[in-house]
Design a protein that fits this description.
InterPro entries: Yippee, Yippee/Mis18/Cereblon, Yippee_fam. This is Protein yippee-like. GO terms for molecular function: metal ion binding. A three-stranded antiparallel sheet has the order 1-2-3, with no helix packed on it. It is built from no helices and three strands. The chain is elongated and about 40 Å long. The protein has about 70 residues and is mainly beta. The protein has a domain of about 40 residues. The chain starts with 6 loop residues before the first strand and ends in a 31-residue tail after the last strand. About 0% of the residues lie in helices and about 25% in strands. A hairpin with a 6-residue loop joins strand 1 and strand 2. About 5% of the residues are buried.
């Protein structure tokens, strides 16, 4: 049970250390929440970048207009 209703989720874990770093929505039991099915959440404070830095502490330049984190790769 989550704040937005009942969901079936799967854990996402790091293949390097085995820590759980997020979850994937497998099923939403309320019709209004079904848009989440197949989507995932990564908790930034649990994920490290390739250089060992944490993404949650990263600040973007003012001209960065948004988009996904993969835009920076």
């Amino acid at each position: 049970m989550m704040m937005t209703g009942l969901h079936t989720v799967s854990d996402i874990f790091c293949v390097g250390c085995g820590s759980i770093v997020g979850w994937k929505y497998e099923a939403a039991h309320e019709k209004s929440q079904r848009y989440k099915e197949g989507k995932f959440i990564l908790e930034r404070f649990k994920v490290s970048g390739p250089d060992g830095s944490h993404y949650w502490g990263v600040t973007h330049d003012a001209h960065h207009g948004g988009g996904s984190d993969t835009d920076d790769l």
